[in-house]
Design a protein that fits this description.
This protein is an alpha/beta fold and about 270 residues long. It has two domains: about 100 residues; about 160 residues, Rossmann fold (3-Layer(aba) Sandwich), CATH 3.40.50.2000. About 30% of the residues lie in helices and about 15% in strands. The chain is built from eight helices and eleven strands. The strands form two sheets. It has a six-stranded mixed β-sheet with strand order 2-1-3-4-5-6, with helices on one face. A five-stranded parallel β-sheet has the order 8-7-9-10-11, with helices on both faces. Helix 7 crosses helix 8. The radius of gyration is 19 Å and the shape is globular.
Length: about 270
């Protein structure tokens, strides 16, 4: 399969892309010999040729002009049209997550952090999604969510430190980001953390996650500790293992490519 990787300097109405997230994942696919990669003439990603199958990797669909396509698969916001289909999602830094996973993940007893949320607010939409309830009252053991401005309250963790904190955590809160999905969901699963999905988090994947199998819903801060306290070590371990199985099928470099190819092959068979 040939992927045309979006060119941030290409033609079209498009905000720039710094080359992380899905586009970094495409680089990994190419390095593993899974696909051929060429530069797209515009800032969007395509399979084989522009105008056919669009690989839409931007968080939202209301902040740019999207070119015409025969079929589109969407990682985050999915338009409600017949030719728009759910897909996979990815970490903010797929390469760092891939490297972090080379060290064996910890079991329940070795994860000394009960619960965690490390994030920041970079725009007004994130502010609404992350401050619409007071999650500081949820009893999350390690919680940090500053507005991303210079100063003493600036987000204090490197990407590597963030992943190491996840490695040592049992449960992780997930709040919607700029889009209804956030890279955090994939990072939590990738590091073996059981996610707690807050309202607004989207579960529209090609293979949706299953409640009480891969994650828990928490409708308000007051529910967080109740859910955590209801989970036994054996249930956590089962969910941890189910999360690893889902991650390997849907979000690992090899699994994400094979699933993308399956989706593309199925779409090619449609008229």
């Amino acid at each position: 399969m040939k992927i045309l990787k979006g060119n941030p300097d290409g033609n079209g109405s498009c905000l720039g892309h710094c080359g992380d997230t899905f586009r970094e994942l495409v680089d990994i696919w190419e390095e593993l010999g899974l696909c051929e990669v060429a530069e797209s003439p515009d800032c969007f990603c395509w399979v084989e040729e522009c105008g056919d199958i669009l690989l839409y990797d931007f968080p939202r669909v209301d902040d740019r002009s999207i070119p015409k396509f025969r079929h589109g698969i969407f990682g985050n916001t999915i338009p409600h049209f017949e030719n728009c289909h759910p897909w996979i999602f990815w970490a903010r830094s797929p390469r760092l997550l891939m490297e972090a996973r080379k060290t064996p993940l910890l079991g329940y007893k070795d994860r000394e952090i009960e619960s965690i949320f490390l994030g920041k607010i970079e725009n007004n939409i994130q502010h609404e999604n992350r401050r619409n309830q007071d999650w500081t009252t949820a009893g999350i053991e390690v919680f940090n969510c500053p507005v991303d401005t210079p100063g003493p309250d600036h987000y204090p963790f490197t990407k590597e430190e963030y992943l190491e904190h996840l490695r040592h955590s049992k449960f992780g809160l997930a709040l919607a980001g700029y889009g209804p999905k956030c890279n955090r969901e994939i990072e939590l699963l990738g590091m073996g953390v059981v996610p707690l999905f807050a309202p607004g988090v989207d579960n529209t994947y090609y293979e949706p996650l299953k409640e009480n199998v891969h994650f828990f819903w928490v409708s308000s801060p007051s529910e967080v500790k109740k859910v955590i306290n209801s989970v036994s070590e054996s249930q956590w371990q089962e969910m941890h293992e189910a999360g690893q199985d889902w991650y390997n099928r849907n979000a690992s470099p090899e699994g994400s490519y094979e699933l993308t190819k399956t989706i593309v092959d199925n779409l090619r068979n449609l008229k």
